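Late entry, written up from scratch paper. The run itself happened at the end of the previous shift, but nothing got recorded in the book at the time, so transcribing now.
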Amino acid sequence: MEWTLLSFLTTLPSHRNKKIKELHPIWEKRGLFLFYLPPYSPQLNISETLWRILKGK
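Output as recorded:
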């Protein structure tokens, strides 16, 4: 059975360092796919949406 794992990372420097970039192709061959979130993404954060509704905007 083959696995596919998706991982979403933030813009923290530790998520974008040289070692991660080196290992990224190896991980993809093994079924681990990394996706980086944009620096500020309120549409992906449910609490931001709820606050906007509560504020009436």
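The chain has a mean pLDDT of 86.
(Scratch paper discarded after transcription.)
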